[in-house]
């Protein structure tokens, strides 16, 4: 989705008065993409309300109805990985590809597992990466072991098709899988559609069966809520009502409510809504958080720490290096332009110092074609310095109307 005649840059300027607003966050793309796979496997189709408006979900929804020999999944991790598992189950002959960014993201754990279950998948360019050719074959159930230290999506992709494998499937994974909350999300959604999922130590057992259709409403996206929490954390006397966010039952990123109290944000449940407000607390000590199960929340919190001058030590960030870009390096490169100091390694980030408003005003920020980098950097505007960044259209991957929502609550948004 193009925001404004395909702009090259956007400049974001925050309002000078307190923010008092209400926002309806779009449906979770993580939940939406799981629902679309389940919907495809159900004998009778069901309705999905509040489906994500993200590019990732739109790609998947379109490809599920496509019979093209070559299917381009764009930049979506779940789009490609979920579709690959489904097409293997269906015995399709198809070439699956993705954007240039996705072609740098590993897929071998899933490919290896599917081949072991009877699929015939060949790499067409670089081993371990898209594009791949899936040759018509019949896959079966049984026992499989998969590397879950790179992405939980490999496990979820197998889980979603498991009921339709003869004899079901037992999945063994590493002792410390990354983003385990997303594996739990997959199990919870499967149970909503009458499929048993049993966890036993580092194993998941899913018996042969079938999904039972029922109409479903997708919850708003808690990961996207992190940017609004970030804006409130850095805006004195401000509050935002996040409509229907409290209705969620599955997203591990709900832990954001707890972590943001450390940065001075209060969350109050009001029916199905959550009202977030700035309590203007003073933080004098280093904040330590392990993001192993919720790595995408770290981006907004890192920018908040820079704006508020709070030293932080964040760990459990290894998966950020194999996302749309190396997000750890991107955060370091862009936030150091503002005058803060950041140390990163393969799994962690340390930040010291506070942003310099003049440096923000005199900088053009790179977004690395990464939606989460762009939205996180927008929080810098709460310093009241204009934030200019390239390629604002990248937000369409998960939150197409993000900048328009900022405009609706009083931010000035200038496209060039």
Overall strand count: 22
Strand content: 15-25%
Oligomer: single chain
CATH superfamily of the largest domain: Enolpyruvate transferase domain
Q: Mean pLDDT, rounded to whole units?
A: 95
The helicity comes to: 25-40%
Radius of gyration: 21 Å
Unreliable spans: 1-5
How can the largest sheet be summarized? 4 strands, mixed
Strand order of the largest sheet: 20-21-1-22
User: Which structural category fits the helices and strands?
Assistant: alpha/beta
**Gross morphology:** globular
* CATH topology title of the largest domain: UDP-n-acetylglucosamine1-carboxyvinyl-transferase, Chain
Provide the number of structural domains: 2
CATH class of the largest domain: Alpha Beta
- The total of helices stands at 13
End-to-end Cα distance, whole Å, is 17 Å
At CATH's second level, what is the architecture of the largest domain? Answer: Alpha-beta prism
Characterization of this structure:
- With 416 residues, this protein is α/β, with parallel strands linked by helices.
- It has helices at residues 29-41, 55-64, 77-90, 108-116, 153-161, 180-192, 222-233, 256-261, 298-308, 327-335, 357-361, 371-377, 402-408; strands spanning 9-13, 20-23, 48-49, 70-72, 94-97, 120-123, 132-135, 142-146, 169-173, 198-200, 203-206, 216-217, 239-242, 265-270, 273-278, 287-290, 312-315, 341-344, 349-352, 364-365, 387-390, 412-415.
- The strands form 6 sheets. The chain has a 4-stranded mixed β-sheet, with helices on one face.
- Helix 7 packs parallel to helix 9 (298-308).
């Amino acid at each position: 989705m193009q925001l404004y005649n395909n702009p090259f840059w956007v400049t974001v300027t925050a309002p000078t008065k307190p923010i008092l607003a209400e926002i309806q966050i779009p449906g979770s793309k993580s939940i939406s993409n799981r629902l679309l796979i389940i919907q495809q496997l159900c004998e009778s189709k069901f309705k999905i309300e509040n489906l994500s408006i993200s590019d990732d979900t739109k790609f998947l929804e379109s490809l599920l109805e496509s019979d093209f020999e070559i299917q381009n999944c764009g930049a979506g991790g779940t789009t490609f990985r979920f579709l690959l598992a489904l097409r293997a189950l269906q015995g399709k002959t198809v070439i699956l590809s993705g954007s240039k960014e996705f072609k740098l993201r590993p897929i071998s754990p899933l490919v290896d597992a599917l081949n072991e279950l009877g699929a015939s998948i060949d790499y067409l360019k670089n081993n371990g990466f898209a594009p791949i050719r899936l040759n018509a074959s019949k896959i079966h159930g049984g026992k499989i072991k998969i590397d879950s230290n790179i992405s939980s999506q490999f496990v979820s992709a197998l889980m979603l098709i498991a009921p339709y494998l003869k004899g079901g499937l037992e999945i063994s994974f590493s002792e410390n899988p990354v983003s385990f909350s997303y594996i739990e999300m997959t199990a919870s959604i499967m149970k909503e559609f009458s499929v048993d999922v049993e966890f036993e130590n580092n194993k998941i057992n899913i018996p042969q069966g079938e999904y039972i259709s029922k109409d479903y409403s997708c919850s708003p996206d808690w990961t996207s809520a992190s940017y609004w929490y970030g804006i409130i954390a850095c805006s004195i006397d401000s509050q935002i009502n996040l409509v229907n966010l409290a209705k969620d039952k599955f997203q591990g990123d709900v832990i954001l409510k707890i972590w943001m109290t450390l940065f001075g944000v209060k969350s109050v449940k009001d029916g199905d809504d959550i009202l977030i407000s700035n309590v203007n607390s003073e933080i004098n000590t280093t904040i330590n958080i392990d993001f192993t199960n919720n790595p995408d929340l770290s981006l907004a919190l890192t920018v908040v720490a820079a704006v508020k001058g709070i030293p932080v030590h964040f760990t459990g960030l290894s998966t950020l290096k194999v996302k749309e870009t190396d997000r750890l390096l991107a955060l370091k490169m862009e936030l150091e332009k503002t005058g803060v100091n950041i140390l990163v390694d393969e799994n962690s980030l340390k930040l010291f110092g506070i942003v310099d408003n003049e440096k923000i005003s005199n900088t053009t920020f790179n977004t690395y074609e990464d939606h989460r980098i762009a939205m996180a950097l927008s929080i810098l505007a709460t310093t009241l310095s204009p934030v200019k960044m390239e390629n604002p259209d990248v937000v369409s991957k998960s939150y197409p109307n993000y900048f328009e929502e900022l405009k609706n609550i009083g931010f000035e948004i200038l496209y060039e």
